[in-house]
Amino acid sequence: MKKAFAALFFMVVLGIAAAFVYHAYTTPQTPQGIDIHAAGDVAPDMMQDVKTAVQLFEQDAARSGAPLIHHVDVYVAATQDDYISVLTNQFEQSAEDAAKIAEVSGGWTGGRKGLTALNGAAGVMDDTSDRKSTTAHELFHQLQFELSDGNDTDEKALFWMEEGAADYVGARIAEQAKGKTLRKWELDTLYDLRMAESTVKPESLAHCTLQQRMALMDKKYHTYQMADAMVICLMQQQKGKELSSLLQYFRLLKDHPDGEEAFEQAFGLSYGSFLKKFRAWYDGELHRPAELAFRARDGVPAGRAEALHEQALAVQPLLKQSFGQEVHGRYDVVVCANPEDYAVAIEETCAVPKEKAQELAQDSLWVSNAGTIVLHADELTDRRQQQYAMATLMARLLRVQLSGRPEDHADAALDARFETFLKNYARNLR
Questions:
Q1: Which of 22, 65, 131, 157 supports an S-S bond with 49, CB 3.0-4.6 Å?
Q2: Which CATH number belongs to the domain containing residue 322 in this structure?
Q3: For residues 192 and 127, what is the distance between their CA atoms, to the nearest angstrom?
């Protein structure tokens, strides 16, 4: 999942490269275990990230009582051409089909073949956290096949459960690897959907033919994010048994290949009832007034985060009065103690390399990364500074919400309105 960052006054919409995964089934392989192979000149750090994810996935699956029982070969392709070569030689795809798959996929999994390919040239393999989540995502497709005895295909099982569950497991593994947290994955997913101009309808994600699936991969539909949101909603209703209930769903597919029937048995409610619950939950998430979770890092003066939180919420009614809308959605706001801590927080929270974090931290008051804001509050010592800084932050969030990032969606008239709003706000500060 490729992420972009914007410092100071710009919010970044996370661009998600779709990890298009399909299953090719032939005969089982032995022995048990996962072997990792480099296809081409793969960077050492990428290979290490994949190895770490494999180890964590195996441990997590074993703890959950669902270890992989057949051998899996994971091929890590260095380039697009290397990826096409793996699809052609290992998966026995035609040259034409392999090229089509490579255009839209970050990974490809074959259940009975015991093969997984990772496209190192895809956006979902750009950073260390995403490499680990992508690897775990693909391996969970292997586990889905095993548990369901091959009934995890799109036309039998629920398509969104396949992909959303794999993304959920990928996020779990990334968190265990000290990458992006599961909560960040949830907030980022909802942020992306709030920013989307259009999305696929949840009802369209039940059963898909290959042709339908290919059509849904158009980025304008935000198919994977919608599938993820459906799983997030479902997991909130499965507190304490999130992974076990997902595993049970795929187990039930072994004897009940009807995805809706397996769903009702695994989660205790009919599929129709869930869709009704999801629509209400999703509408609430899209339109909820800004819910800001401020977290102070070590060294931040007592009460600083609380004061900033208060000022951020205080400006909401004024924004609504001026623009007819307030900031929506849930955000985590990480408050940092000093310049050095600010850079470290960006690195840790957003899972970016140290050098990139230091670059983003220079001469900026905050860095926004979808549902997360890292805030340098060292110099926000008096009330007026805090009021104006938080008004500016909330105004920029609303600007993006209304029209998109200024660098991508220029709107001089709207920007002038926000500038006037902030000037008037500053004049009335006490």
A1: 131
A2: 3.40.390
A3: 19
